[in-house]
Amino acid sequence: MNNRAWIAAVAATMASAAGAQAVTVPAPTLLTVSAEGRVTRAPDLAEVTGGVLTTAPTASAAMSENAVRMSAVVAALRKAGVADRDIQTSGLNLQPQYRYDNNQPPTLTGYQATNNVSLRIRKLADAGKLLDTLVSVGANQINGPNFRVENSDKALDEARVAAVATARARAVLYANAAGLHIKRIASISESGGEQPRPMMMTMRADKASASTPVEPGEVALTITVTMAFELE
Question: What Å distances lie between residue 199 and 3, 55, 121, 142, CA to CA?
Fold first, then answer.
């Protein structure tokens, strides 16, 4: 091959390569849709935090008094039938207390001790009576209850099915409105879960009165599904 022919062949090869690089593949049209699936169930578990707050001139006195009262609280829980596995210390704190006067350094006035236990109540009908008992034996801090469904997998699966069905229906709606069709599902992800519902209660220490009313109602279990669809 002479030089002229070789140059012509190289030029043809370069032109062919340039033409190949100019060819582009269009990006797929993606549609992302989020939908929520929701089911409700009667709760079978209540979670409550009960605690004791004490103050005293010294740290040791505050802790000692707190220990006596908290021991009575835990003993009352066990006597009421709450299993050890459902009682857990969730917070223990000791802090100095100060008085602040204008233009004066802080003055130590004593110490404050707090001790909290988290408990699971499985007999919801006895929840009000149990909480009143805690107050009567020394608990002076109550938070909750948060109602839950302990074994919620089946209910959450129902919510998942509902969420996917809603997402697919919305995707078809959008695709039809755009004059397109769904080719395939590109991705699926989820978030969410059980939603405990807290209740605010006023505790009564009067033993002659009825127990504190506790109404479980229903809890909502939700799943949010995000799906990406490839359209054509």
Answer: 92, 28, 14, 11
